[in-house]
Design brief:
Number of strands: 9
Shape: globular
CATH architecture: 2-Layer Sandwich
Largest sheet: 5 strands, mixed
Structural class: alpha/beta
Strand order of the largest sheet: 2-5-9-4-3
Number of domains: 1
Strand content: 25-35%
Distance between the termini: 57 Å
Length: 180
Protein backbone atom coordinates (compact mmCIF):
# COMPACT_ATOMS: atom_id res chain seq x y z
CA UNK A 1 0.00 0.00 0.00
CA UNK A 2 1.53 3.30 -1.11
CA UNK A 3 1.01 6.58 0.71
CA UNK A 4 1.15 10.17 -0.48
CA UNK A 5 1.89 13.06 1.91
CA UNK A 6 -0.76 15.68 2.51
CA UNK A 7 1.09 19.02 2.26
CA UNK A 8 -1.81 21.10 3.59
CA UNK A 9 -1.75 19.35 6.98
CA UNK A 10 0.53 20.34 9.89
CA UNK A 11 0.94 18.27 13.03
CA UNK A 12 1.82 19.99 16.29
CA UNK A 13 2.19 18.35 19.68
CA UNK A 14 0.05 19.37 22.63
CA UNK A 15 2.00 21.04 25.39
CA UNK A 16 1.11 21.18 29.06
CA UNK A 17 -1.23 19.45 31.46
CA UNK A 18 -4.10 21.86 30.72
CA UNK A 19 -4.03 21.21 26.96
CA UNK A 20 -4.18 17.45 27.54
CA UNK A 21 -6.96 17.84 30.10
CA UNK A 22 -9.05 19.99 27.77
CA UNK A 23 -8.67 17.55 24.89
CA UNK A 24 -9.53 14.60 27.12
CA UNK A 25 -12.59 16.27 28.67
CA UNK A 26 -14.02 17.77 25.45
CA UNK A 27 -13.02 14.93 23.15
CA UNK A 28 -15.05 11.98 21.95
CA UNK A 29 -13.58 8.67 23.13
CA UNK A 30 -12.61 5.83 20.76
CA UNK A 31 -10.74 2.62 21.67
CA UNK A 32 -8.99 -0.25 19.89
CA UNK A 33 -6.52 -2.90 21.08
CA UNK A 34 -5.50 -1.26 24.31
CA UNK A 35 -5.26 2.25 22.87
CA UNK A 36 -7.78 4.94 23.71
CA UNK A 37 -8.06 8.13 21.68
CA UNK A 38 -9.78 11.34 22.72
CA UNK A 39 -10.70 13.24 19.56
CA UNK A 40 -11.85 16.85 19.41
CA UNK A 41 -13.48 17.61 16.05
CA UNK A 42 -13.49 20.88 14.13
CA UNK A 43 -16.88 22.33 13.46
CA UNK A 44 -17.59 22.31 9.71
CA UNK A 45 -17.36 25.89 8.44
CA UNK A 46 -16.65 26.03 4.68
CA UNK A 47 -17.13 29.82 4.56
CA UNK A 48 -14.40 30.34 7.14
CA UNK A 49 -11.43 32.46 6.01
CA UNK A 50 -8.93 30.00 7.52
CA UNK A 51 -10.45 27.17 5.49
CA UNK A 52 -7.85 27.31 2.72
CA UNK A 53 -4.94 27.83 5.13
CA UNK A 54 -2.82 24.83 6.17
CA UNK A 55 -4.68 22.92 8.85
CA UNK A 56 -3.00 22.15 12.17
CA UNK A 57 -3.91 19.02 14.09
CA UNK A 58 -2.74 19.03 17.70
CA UNK A 59 -1.82 15.63 19.05
CA UNK A 60 -0.51 14.10 22.23
CA UNK A 61 0.52 10.68 23.46
CA UNK A 62 0.44 9.62 27.09
CA UNK A 63 0.60 6.52 29.25
CA UNK A 64 0.84 5.55 32.88
CA UNK A 65 4.00 6.64 34.63
CA UNK A 66 4.23 3.32 36.45
CA UNK A 67 5.24 1.65 33.19
CA UNK A 68 8.85 0.81 33.93
CA UNK A 69 11.52 1.29 32.78
CA UNK A 70 11.29 4.73 31.18
CA UNK A 71 13.02 3.42 28.05
CA UNK A 72 10.09 1.09 27.46
CA UNK A 73 7.52 3.82 28.14
CA UNK A 74 9.26 6.17 25.70
CA UNK A 75 9.47 3.47 23.00
CA UNK A 76 5.73 2.86 23.17
CA UNK A 77 5.05 6.60 23.06
CA UNK A 78 7.33 7.00 20.02
CA UNK A 79 5.53 4.17 18.21
CA UNK A 80 2.13 5.69 18.97
CA UNK A 81 3.28 9.13 17.84
CA UNK A 82 4.70 7.81 14.58
CA UNK A 83 1.62 5.69 13.82
CA UNK A 84 -0.63 8.70 14.39
CA UNK A 85 1.56 10.82 12.15
CA UNK A 86 1.47 8.21 9.38
CA UNK A 87 -2.28 7.73 9.67
CA UNK A 88 -2.97 11.49 9.51
CA UNK A 89 -0.22 12.74 7.24
CA UNK A 90 -0.71 10.32 4.42
CA UNK A 91 -3.67 9.24 2.36
CA UNK A 92 -4.23 5.96 0.61
CA UNK A 93 -3.33 5.57 -3.06
CA UNK A 94 -4.94 2.17 -3.15
CA UNK A 95 -8.62 2.84 -3.92
CA UNK A 96 -9.60 -0.82 -3.50
CA UNK A 97 -9.81 -0.27 0.27
CA UNK A 98 -11.72 3.00 -0.19
CA UNK A 99 -15.16 1.34 -0.39
CA UNK A 100 -17.22 4.19 1.06
CA UNK A 101 -15.00 6.98 -0.28
CA UNK A 102 -13.65 7.69 3.21
CA UNK A 103 -11.48 10.48 1.86
CA UNK A 104 -14.59 12.64 1.56
CA UNK A 105 -15.57 11.93 5.15
CA UNK A 106 -12.08 12.78 6.32
CA UNK A 107 -12.07 16.21 4.79
CA UNK A 108 -14.56 18.86 3.82
CA UNK A 109 -13.96 19.92 0.22
CA UNK A 110 -13.65 23.56 -0.83
CA UNK A 111 -12.26 23.79 -4.34
CA UNK A 112 -8.82 22.20 -4.32
CA UNK A 113 -8.22 22.64 -0.58
CA UNK A 114 -9.68 20.39 2.10
CA UNK A 115 -10.13 20.84 5.82
CA UNK A 116 -9.07 18.21 8.31
CA UNK A 117 -11.89 17.27 10.65
CA UNK A 118 -9.63 16.67 13.66
CA UNK A 119 -8.72 19.59 15.89
CA UNK A 120 -6.81 17.59 18.49
CA UNK A 121 -6.14 13.94 19.29
CA UNK A 122 -4.75 12.42 22.49
CA UNK A 123 -3.68 8.77 22.41
CA UNK A 124 -3.51 6.88 25.70
CA UNK A 125 -1.82 3.48 25.95
CA UNK A 126 -3.87 1.39 28.38
CA UNK A 127 -2.34 -2.07 28.04
CA UNK A 128 1.35 -2.89 27.94
CA UNK A 129 2.13 -5.94 25.77
CA UNK A 130 3.81 -8.93 27.39
CA UNK A 131 6.98 -8.41 25.36
CA UNK A 132 7.02 -4.68 24.65
CA UNK A 133 10.60 -4.76 23.37
CA UNK A 134 9.31 -6.73 20.37
CA UNK A 135 6.56 -4.19 19.64
CA UNK A 136 6.80 -2.76 16.13
CA UNK A 137 5.10 0.02 14.21
CA UNK A 138 3.21 -2.58 12.15
CA UNK A 139 1.62 -3.79 15.40
CA UNK A 140 0.40 -0.35 16.48
CA UNK A 141 -0.53 1.30 13.17
CA UNK A 142 -3.66 -0.82 12.42
CA UNK A 143 -5.16 0.04 15.82
CA UNK A 144 -4.58 3.77 15.29
CA UNK A 145 -6.04 3.58 11.76
CA UNK A 146 -9.08 1.75 13.14
CA UNK A 147 -9.59 4.48 15.74
CA UNK A 148 -9.35 7.24 13.13
CA UNK A 149 -11.72 5.39 10.80
CA UNK A 150 -14.33 5.12 13.55
CA UNK A 151 -13.80 8.78 14.45
CA UNK A 152 -14.43 9.77 10.81
CA UNK A 153 -17.61 7.70 10.75
CA UNK A 154 -18.76 9.36 13.97
CA UNK A 155 -18.03 12.78 12.47
CA UNK A 156 -19.99 11.93 9.35
CA UNK A 157 -23.01 10.81 11.38
CA UNK A 158 -23.08 13.66 13.90
CA UNK A 159 -21.35 16.74 12.52
CA UNK A 160 -22.04 16.62 8.78
CA UNK A 161 -25.77 16.02 9.37
CA UNK A 162 -25.94 19.04 11.68
CA UNK A 163 -24.03 21.14 9.16
CA UNK A 164 -26.29 20.14 6.26
CA UNK A 165 -29.41 20.91 8.35
CA UNK A 166 -27.92 24.29 9.22
CA UNK A 167 -27.25 25.08 5.54
CA UNK A 168 -30.80 24.04 4.57
CA UNK A 169 -32.26 26.23 7.34
CA UNK A 170 -30.19 29.19 6.13
CA UNK A 171 -31.29 28.63 2.50
CA UNK A 172 -34.96 28.47 3.52
CA UNK A 173 -34.59 31.66 5.58
CA UNK A 174 -32.90 33.51 2.69
CA UNK A 175 -35.62 32.37 0.26
CA UNK A 176 -38.28 33.56 2.69
CA UNK A 177 -36.62 36.99 2.98
CA UNK A 178 -36.23 37.32 -0.82
CA UNK A 179 -39.93 36.55 -1.39
CA UNK A 180 -41.11 39.23 1.05
Amino acid sequence: MQFEPRPHLRLQSLKGFEAFGTAMSKGQRFSARGITAFVVFRSPAPNDAEFSAPQTVFFGVTMKKRTRPAVLRNRIKRLLRESLRLALQQKKQDKKHDKNNLRNTTTVKNGEQSQEIFESIVLVCNNIPEKPNLLRLEDVLPAVKNILKRAREYYKEHYEEQHSKQINTNEVASEHISHT
